[in-house]
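Data card: per-record layout.
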Amino acid sequence: AARYGSSAWLEWDEASMRGKFLNRPERGEIPENIREQLIVELYSK
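The structure for this 45-residue chain is written out next.
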């Protein structure tokens, strides 16, 4: 299984399309294209 990009918090196996969180990422380790506010809005409906 390969690491996602250069992150140490996610293990990803592209062949089986499976991933595993190795630890909880800090905000700075999450890609910038993630917009938390949109996630909050989606789940608060």
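Known properties of this structure: The radius of gyration is 13 Å. The longest helix spans residues 36-43.

See the next section for split statistics.
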